[in-house]
Amino acid sequence: MKASKALYAGSFDPLTNGHLDIIRRASRMCGEVVVGVIINMSKKSMFSFEERMEMIRKATEDLPNVKVDMFSGLLADYVNQNGFDVVIRGLRATMDFEYEIQMAQMNARLYKDDVETVFLMTDPQFSFISSSMAKEVHQLGGSIQGLVPDNVLEAMDKKVKSL
Ligand code: COA
Known about the structure:
Blueprint: E1 5-10, H1 17-29, E2 32-38, H2 49-59, E3 66-71, H3 75-81, E4 86-91, H4 94-110, E5 116-121, H5 131-139, H6 150-162
Parallel strand pairs: 1-2, 1-4, 2-3, 4-5
The protein binds coenzyme A (COA).
């Protein structure tokens, strides 16, 4: 496979081990992977965009071809302006499929150059995780050890104590 520049975008509020598994696998397939934190003011969040980026940087520090950035507006504009040729998405279950195919097909119309959306099947041990569920269980005192990276869990503990 030729070296490609891939985007893996999402809210990452916060990063989970499901996301990290996708990032690791994408980093083995692609020349460069940019984890793009989407600036979405309408989604109520636990962490600021900077905090999310810092947590992702820490969790991926052993992956030299992974970079972290943030962007707002259309994903396709960010892709066109930054020369990406691959967009990575993780599929957790069949329920993700309908939404993902709609997004991929809409984005395909908006890309200026040849850009492929590549779907990676989530490792079954992470197929049930979402950031919201991790936050809810953690806030109610349940253990989420192993579901989010250790540095994310530390940051979540600190955040809850500071509330
Ligand atoms: N492992 C664990 N969780 C995962 C996961 C994985 N592999 N893949 C997705 N998730 C979870 C996320 O944690 C998140 O959970 P939450 O809702 O509980 O927080 C949920 O799936 C949704 O992910 P999120 O990152 O919030 O957004 P999204 O997947 O819906 O889409 C973008 C993100 C950036 C691709 C999309 O919003 C976008 O393109 N935005 C830009 C605007 C635009 O261009 N719109 C037109 C699109 S055609």
